[in-house]
Specification:
With 168 residues, the chain is an alpha+beta fold. 43% of the residues lie in helices and 11% in strands. It has 2 domains: 58 residues; 79 residues, Glutaredoxin (3-Layer(aba) Sandwich). Strand 3 and strand 4 form a beta hairpin. Bound molecules: FE2/S2 (inorganic) cluster. The site of FE2/S2 (inorganic) cluster (FES) has 12 residues, from helix 5.
Amino acid sequence: MALNQKRIAPPSDDRRWKLVDATMRRYGYSSQAVIETLHTIQEVFGNISAESLAYVSGSLNVPPSKVYGVATFYNHFNMAPLGEHVLSVCTGTACYVKGSGQVVDWIKEEYGLEPGQTTPDNKLSFMVARCVGACGLAPVIMLDGEVVGRLSVDEMKKRIKEWISYDK
Ligand code: FES
């Protein structure tokens, strides 16, 4: 990510996020920073949580599935458990103008989840991505890695409800 682009806020006021940010800054917020950033997160927090994956993904503009893939590929990383299912919503520009922000708001209302959070029953983790490289399909969501796009906001909600086959 170029330095003049707006960066996303860390998940909390915890000062340890400043150390995580310093690592990403050292690499100019480029996608090359994923491994080093995950190292820093593990050093300062002890493990890699869903919210830290979402933060790295948004800050470095790398799809959450890729960050998750890197984190799980190396045995060295100690993952905090993600939910059984992962729902990602792309909030990159192309998807945002087609209503993905409304989908994010709806998920907050409907399932009580902020990006990076997991339901208490560990069934569902929710993430946002900056662009998953499928802008032609905007708005795009990913249901456990399956790319779903070109739906209206209402159709998107219906699709998510069908996918989430358990009672809240
Ligand atoms: S902005 Fe959503 S896929 Fe590119």
